[in-house]
Amino acid sequence: MTSSSDAATALFESAIKGERRSLGKLLTAIERGGRQAEIIADLAHQVSGNTHVVGITGAPGSGKSTLTGRLLKLFSEAGDKLAVLAVDPSSPLTGGAILGDRIRMDDLAGEESFIRSMATRGHSGGLALAVPAAIQLFDAVGYEPVIIETVGVGQVEVDVAGAADTTVVVVTPGMGDAVQANKAGLLEVADIFVVNKSDRPGASDARRDLELMLDLGHVSGLEQMTGYRPPIIMANSLDGIGADEVLDAIKSHAEYLRNSGKIHIRRKERLVMEIQNRVELLIGSTASDILESELGAGYIANVLNRKISPAEAAKSIVGSILTKK
Amino acid sequence: MTSSSDAATALFESAIKGERRSLGKLLTAIERGGRQAEIIADLAHQVSGNTHVVGITGAPGSGKSTLTGRLLKLFSEAGDKLAVLAVDPSSPLTGGAILGDRIRMDDLAGEESFIRSMATRGHSGGLALAVPAAIQLFDAVGYEPVIIETVGVGQVEVDVAGAADTTVVVVTPGMGDAVQANKAGLLEVADIFVVNKSDRPGASDARRDLELMLDLGHVSGLEQMTGYRPPIIMANSLDGIGADEVLDAIKSHAEYLRNSGKIHIRRKERLVMEIQNRVELLIGSTASDILESELGAGYIANVLNRKISPAEAAKSIVGSILTKK
Q1: B310/A275 CB distance under 8 A
Q2: pLDDT value for A93
Q3: What residues of chain A lie within 8 A of the CB of B90, using their CB?
Q4: Separation of alpha carbons A145 and A133, rounded Å
């Protein structure tokens, strides 16, 4: 056992006992990536697999942070010890995540809850590993549920949201927000829709757009198979309107997943996605190594000279990886 | 030579001669991906490497399509035979790209210019290959410049924009748009900034924010190395204000790249990125094959049973790939 493994194990045991500072340090290590992050992910994986994971996603400005804050308050009041992970684009200015509403969110949380931001920019591959590891860590430490808040714009963010047990997609009235969500691939991963800022003009249009899209079958394969139809909830998170309905919908969906056995399918899919991401990251770094080697420089020169195409260079590099001892 | 290779070669030769319908068919094949796309990319690569590639990116609603249309008109009027590739999120409703302003854009184009949309959703890996292949095809056929318009939200889109010779980042006043662009990683790839809708309140603030970020050095490594500082242009694309200034800035930047020899560095980086993307896609499919095999099912079961961790499963799978004959 190495000393870095010892340190991670000590922090992990301390976090399991309820040491919040240890949990914070473990999350920082997960965010940073590398060997330490992997040790922590391995430890957490062994004792995880129980918590319900809720993904909340929507465009910037859709009020999903405020809704998350409302849910945090409702869960906390009901005595739940929950964790919130806000996945934010990071700022090169600060080197960390821009917190936005996070400060107010702390006021809403119960003593027992844990709130954390995670940066995404510059290492989308890292995010794909860090988020599942953080979920498993929260799970291992005993947080239930775990809420993941993401900005639903990039493919990675959609993947992260889609990896949740229950995915809540937040849209706002006007500007074809439902159409935008559709474009971003969010409709297909949604288990619950929230039309936020429902006092604004166009709220009923947004609802109708979503109903139509559901009618047309542009939703997760789940509905086709099982008859589960994502509810559409009108909300105004600023006033707290609709948040209790969202909470009920999350609980109903969790119950539906458990009763139907679908929860096992979702969790298996999540693990398969994680394994696949880890495989691609491992091999991607092998490819980078080769590209930066003398061999790689030769391929690049030949591509620049139009002697071979990028596809041919890629095949040769993959060939040299596959035959590597 | 296979028949699919024959067909691609025939289409390619016809496109080189100026057959627009053949060019359209080639672009469709590139978008679809697979073997045919690769043959076309190989053919195009052999005779490409000359055209100047301009990336135009910004958040949805920043007016970048309108600006692109204005530039299209100015280039066309100056006698340039240019191509515009609009990279749009696709809609599951239509199965294709939502065209938005594209119809009006056709009105702006000269007889000689070529406008095309490309869908992104559902295959970000595919986009990473299709866009460079389309650029090389336009290049081979003799379009100059090639303008790539992307929505600057996801990492893939930033990568695509950043792979251009000259990258134009469009922001709008208000709502901390410059800060959002910063978050998305757009500032670092920008060669030219456009503050669009400059008649709106907050336009001068947006300009000041950008100047500040430039002062703080949050820009491409290029500035640090060479003293090139991205200009900030106030524009109102709806009225056409500022478009000629943007055109001049693009030409100045192209000249700067040529005179400094930096153009070769950019193009080499673009090719290396393309090779890397192709390697990762090739190996990713090998990983998928293994995950779907009996061997993979065994690993997944062990991960589900908490006997091994996802990281351990990934390492074993990579091991079996690396030792594969």
Answers
A1: yes
A2: 29
A3: 183
A4: 15
pTM: 0.69
Q: Which residue has the higher pLDDT, B93 or B259?
A: B259
Minimum Cα–Cα distance from A296: chain B residue: B272
What are the tens digits of pLDDT across the range A200-228?
A: 888 888 888 888 877 776 544 444 556 68
Q: Which of A154, A268, A287 sits opposite B276 (nearest CB)?
A: A287
- Mean pLDDT, chain B, integer: 81
Where residue A122 falls among pLDDT bands split at 50, 70, 90? very low
Number of separate domains in chain B: 2
Give Cβ neighbours of residue A224 (< 8 Å, ≥ 6 apart).
A217
Residue B36 domain-assigned (yes or no): yes
Residues of A in contact with B123 (CB under 8 A): none
Q: Which of B206, B226, B260 is the last residue of a domain?
A: B260
Residue B322 has pLDDT above 60, yes or no: yes
Angle at B31 between CA B27 and CA B35, to 5 degrees: 95
A166 is a domain residue = yes
Mark whether B74 and B202 lie in a shared domain. yes
- Final residue in a domain of this structure, among B223, B242, B260: B260
Cβ distance B184 to A121 less than 8 Å, yes or no, reads: yes
Taking one residue from A and the other from B, the number of pairs with CB-CB distance under 8 angstroms is: 199
Phi, psi of B88 (to 5 degrees): -120, 145
Partner residue opposite B280 with nearest CB, options A38, A154, A284: A284
| Residue scoring higher pLDDT (B96 or B178) | B178
Q: Best of A47, A121, A275, A289 to disrupt the B interface by mutation (most B CBs within 10 Å)?
A: A275
What is the distance between the alpha carbons of residues B278 and B266, in angstroms, rounded to a whole number? 18
Q: Do B287 and A272 touch (CB under 8 A)?
A: no
pLDDT in tens, B2-35: 677 889 999 999 999 999 999 999 999 998 888 8
- Please check whether residues A240 and A94 belong to one and the same domain: yes
Task: Write out chain A residues lying below 8 Å of B315, CB-based.
Answer: 282
In a domain, B75, yes or no: yes
Closest CA to B164 of B137, B182, B145: B145
The minimum CA-CA distance between B95 and chain A, rounded to whole Å, is 10
pLDDT digits (tens, 9 = 90+) for B136-164: 999 999 999 999 988 665 666 666 666 79
Based on the fold, state whether residues B115 and B18 are members of the same structural domain.
no
The residue range of the domain holding B137 is 50-260
Question: Please, is A7 exposed, middle or buried when counting C-beta atoms within 10 Å of its C-beta (0-12, 13-18, 19+)?
Answer: middle
> Is residue B87 in some structural domain?
yes
Pair (A66, A205) in one structural domain: yes
> Which position has the higher pLDDT, A128 or A45?
A45
The answer to whether B284 and A280 have CB atoms below 8 angstroms apart is: yes
Do A60 and A236 form a contact (C-beta atoms < 8 A)?
no
